[in-house]
Design a protein that fits this description.
Helix content is 38%, strand content 17%. It is α/β, with parallel strands linked by helices and 259 residues long.
């Protein structure tokens, strides 16, 4: 089909309109970060999301066995809105920007290691009920995006391995205090059956969207190491904080997580 100059202009207008409609469908007609009018994440919120440097975080108090963990920044109002929209409102077009921030956390954890080392990212599993209600596993989607981003320029691309599975139904974490969360998560994960095979050759990095008390990451590390899978550490998009300032590690608070 040949389109003349006038037709080309009209076609581009239609394509832009469809792009706008698609963005509104997945993200709404306002920025999910600041509610500024317009489809998608606005430029100002994109800049804010990219500003923090990933750094190591540690819960206070810290559970025994908590893995070395890097967060892409503090769990501020912007990140809270974006994670909530991605999880609860199926704003799937946010997978890219959130997955890229997760990739930066993984990169910080791996700084100084051989690019050829086999590394696989293991997402904290969502419950089957949450996956059914949301339409997909949002943490797995973020992990896949991070793997694609991190594979660029590496001698050996990273791999996503959903090795963990829930062993039972968990109580809603947001309604629990620190001790109750730890009791709720004790023994909550197990490694999927490997069909008689040995543990995968390489080392794991546990990934999640958020760290609060550290109970989920600690339990995930326990499950993996018990199955003979070495764990390098963990990486998350954000950490809930008491203080997060240049030159100091973030101190993880006991604010409620979205799960």
């Amino acid at each position: 089909m040949v389109v003349g100059a006038g037709g080309h202009s009209e076609l581009m207008h239609v394509l832009r309109r469809w792009g706008s409609v698609t963005a509104e469908l997945f993200l709404g007609a306002a920025c999910p970060g600041c509610e500024a009018p317009g489809p998608g994440l606005c430029p100002a919120c994109r800049v804010r999301l990219d500003e923090p440097e990933p750094r190591q975080v540690r819960p206070t108090p810290c559970p025994a066995g908590f893995p070395t963990t890097y967060a892409g920044g503090p769990y501020d109002e912007l990140v809270r809105r974006l994670i909530s929209a991605h999880k609860e409102r199926q704003a799937w077009l946010l997978t890219g920007v959130l997955g890229d921030r997760l990739a930066r956390s993984v990169g910080a954890l791996l700084a100084g290691r051989s690019a050829a080392e086999t590394v696989f990212l293991v997402p904290i599993p969502s419950s089957p009920a949450a996956v059914r209600s949301r339409g997909r596993d949002s943490t797995a989607a973020l992990t896949r995006r991070a793997v694609r981003r991190l594979g660029i320029g590496r001698d050996r691309p990273m791999i996503m391995k959903p090795l963990l599975r829930p062993t039972r139904r968990l109580a809603d974490q947001s309604a629990l205090d620190e001790n109750e969360r730890r009791q709720n998560l004790a023994g909550a994960y197990a490694v999927r059956r490997l069909g008689g095979r040995q543990p995968p050759d390489g080392a794991a990095i546990i990934v999640d969207d958020l760290v609060t008390t550290g109970s989920s990451l600690t339990e995930a590390r326990r499950a993996l190491t018990s199955a003979g899978v070495p764990v390098l550490g963990a990486a998350v998009i954000a950490a809930t904080v008491r203080r997060y300032r240049p030159g100091a590690d973030a101190q993880v608070s006991e604010a409620d997580a979205i799960r």
